Amino acid sequence: MSKLIKFVLAVLFLSSVSTGTAFSQSPVIDSVYYAKAVGGLINYYQNSPDKKLVLYNGPEHRGYFRQIKGFAYFDTDKMVNGNVLYDHVWYKLPLLYDLVMDQVIILHYDGLYKMSLVTERVDQFNMNGHVFKKIGLTNLDSKMVPGFYEQIYAGDSISLYAKRSKIISELLNMQSLEREFQSKNLYYFLISGSYHSVNSKKEMYALLGSKKKAVVVYLRKNHVKFRKSKEAALVIASKKYDDKL
C-alpha cells in the first residue's frame, strides 16, 4: 500500500506543478478534484503492468496427480470469482484455495498457467460467500497453527473460525496403492481476544459459562447433535452466547 500512496502523491504533485494548480484554491474544489484524481490513479495503478509485478510474482502451481481421488481445493476444483487482500490492496479475480498447501491459487495474467500467491502477503480472501482470514502467532490456542481460517460467525462477543485442510491418504488395496484427498476441519472460538479449541462438546460447554443451559436446551429442542452436526451446533452456540438467537 505504501507504494500505491507514494505513486498517487507523486503524480498529484507533478500534475499540480505542470498545470499550475494552486494548493490554496477553494477547499471544496480541491477536495472534489483530488478525490476524483486519487480514485482514477488508484484504478490505473491496480490495472497497470506494475500491479502484475506486485501480484503475479509467486511460484507456479503445478497441481496434483490425476490418479488421486477427489481434489485438493476448497469447495470446488474450478476457478471461482473472489476477492483477495494482497499487500493491503483488494483485488477481484478468479481463484482457488489449496487446502493441502494452505495457499491461494490464481491464474497468471497471461492465462497460461496457475500460480500461488505469496502467503505472507495475503491478509484475507473471499470466495463463494466464504471469508478466510490469516491468523498469525498472536493469542493462538496451543492446538492452532498460523494460516488461513474461515470466519464462520463474527459476533459482538464471540467469533467462530474453522481451519479447513486436506491430506493425501494412501491405502494398499489388492497390491495397488490408492490415494485420496481427505478433509479435516478444526474449530475455534475467539473470545476476549484469545482463541480456544472447540472440537468436542466438553470444550464447547466449558467456554459458554452462564449460556450453557440455554444452548443445551436449544440443541435438544431442535435435534442438533454435536457429533453429527458439529459446525451447526457451534454456530448455534455462538449465536446463543451472543444473544442473537
TrEMBL record:
Protein name per Swiss-Prot or TrEMBL: SPOR domain-containing protein
Entry superkingdom: Bacteria
Keyword vocabulary terms for this entry: Signal
Signal peptide: 1-24
